[in-house]
Structure prediction request, 377 residues.
Amino acid sequence: MADPLIRAELPYDLEDEYRPEPVPVPTPPAWQDGSYRIGIHCSIAGDIAGSLDIAAKLGANALQIFSASPRMWPRGGTRIAEADAARFRARRAALGLGPLVIHDNYLINLASPDRVMRARSIQAFHDEIVRAVSLGADFLVAHPGAAMGAPVGQAIAEIADGMRQAARGVKFGGLRILVENTSGMGSAVGSRFEEVQGILEAIADLPMGVCLDTAHTFEAGFDIGSEEGLEKTLDLVERTVGLGRVFVLHVNDSKTALGSRVDRHENIGFGKIGRKALGRILNHPRLGPGALAGRAFILETPIDRAGDDRRNVRALWELVGVDEEHAPKAEAGFSMVRGERKALTQRTPRTQRAQRKTGAVRKGKGRGKTGKKRAKK
Ligand SMILES: [Zn+2]
Ligand SMILES: [Zn+2]
Prediction:
């Protein structure tokens, strides 16, 4: 008797074939849920993980940091110890912050005509990428560089080549490099979007994108303070680098005038761009999170008075129509500089400072009283 299970024509169903488990499609991170991501550049002084708590206390849900001192060439090892990086990543996950943006060192100049400086810059940029990956950063914002007399076309080629060399052998994971547009101060490359486009086109093999700084844009001569000016600028950005590649906006007001080519950031609503125009930018249908989920708006505003940082974060939430109840909770009275400022004023109360100016008090606490008496005369 024939086994009923063995049939002459066993239909072979492709579905029966053994196939390994499909690679799971990674679920997008929570910060790409289409909500507004508002952040601020936070200090890493003391402890790099402390920057995360600063962002949370300021009422931000995204942040930017330096991953090392921004105005010094690092000495010795520049890698972050894995235990510290793991603690950083865990704290970030616990606080639900994202995206995490890292800004590169100001000294790096991949376009430098000085060979030693350029080699040093490539090494430093390589270290930037390594540290960004170890911290689990989403974006590494880089200033293009300064041509220092070289033709712009050559500078662009050097920058692209430098970035490619710096990226050699690094597994990027989810990291993307963003080229920031500049005000065009000095011989800075990148004040024209065609220049930024040139860099991107020369590095098509790396995960790249753009960071658009509102102050730099304005200072470079694009009138984003007016409605027509903003439309024209967005059209130009679309035609050159493409708006879909602008993953981060630096939201800064400008101390200097349209086209000044002088890079001076100002608090939101106190500069030449103004609150209304910045609101128009944040809410623009081509720039808001509806156009690109997870696009972040990061402040790099000065802290002239303690609390300016917290007030600027609040200002952005207000501009996008999120009231205090619905925005991430800021800690009342918190500021990044509060502690330092307080200590300073405690050491030198106003009277004593005035006395010092008149020369009544030279030094030391002991003379304070006599100094005061003399100063009163
Ligand atoms: Zn920058
Ligand atoms: Zn910027």
User: Anything to note?
Assistant: Residues 115-135 form the longest helix (21 residues). The chain has twelve helices and ten strands. The chain has two domains: 30-330, 344-376.
